[in-house]
Design a protein that fits this description.
With 153 residues, the protein is mainly α. The chain has a domain of 80 residues. Helix content is 86%, strand content 0%. Helix 6 crosses helix 7. One of its GO terms (cellular component) is plasma membrane.
Length: 153
């Protein structure tokens, strides 16, 4: 008998295939492999609790790789601050990091919100070719909006 989780993953795999989204298809393939190998029970718990931090670490490594390779140096850094776009990027990076901070606790504490955010991310990745960092940033935005709503109610 097919479980709801398996049916849901297969549906998402189909969406990923139709949208030609390799990241989504690889993620689902890994989850299916873990599920059918019998490692799912432990693996899913670990992935759920540590996966976001691992993902952020991998993204951070990718962002810092040009510094490590020597493509970006201090000269580039000081030159960038002469550009108004660099200042916009700096402020945007700080804002996103602060938003994501609230999102981490929201994702950890509210399963209903997590489900909606994950579904929104999957739809964006599948349909609009978005990037799957959405749940963390989305949770941060949701957390901030919720705090504003709480403040005014």
């Amino acid at each position: 008998m097919m479980s709801h989780s398996l049916l849901f993953l297969l549906l998402l795999l189909g969406i990923g295939f139709i949208a030609k989204n390799n990241s989504l298809m690889i993620a689902i393939a890994v989850l299916l492999l873990l599920k059918f190998s019998g490692l799912g029970a432990k693996s899913f718990t670990i992935l759920q609790s540590k996966g976001i931090n691992w993902g952020v670490t991998i993204i951070t490594i990718a962002v810092l790789a040009p510094i490590a390779s020597g493509e970006i140096g201090f000269k580039d850094l000081t030159g960038a601050f002469k550009s108004s776009f660099a200042w916009i990027a700096l402020i945007s990076g700080m804002a996103v990091a602060l938003l994501a901070k609230g999102g981490v606790s929201l994702l950890a504490n509210d399963p209903q919100i997590t489900t909606a955010l994950v579904l929104g991310t999957i739809l964006s990745v599948s349909i609009f070719k978005g990037v799957a960092v959405g749940p963390l940033i989305g949770a941060g935005i949701a957390y901030t909006v919720m705090k504003v709503v709480d403040f005014f109610t």
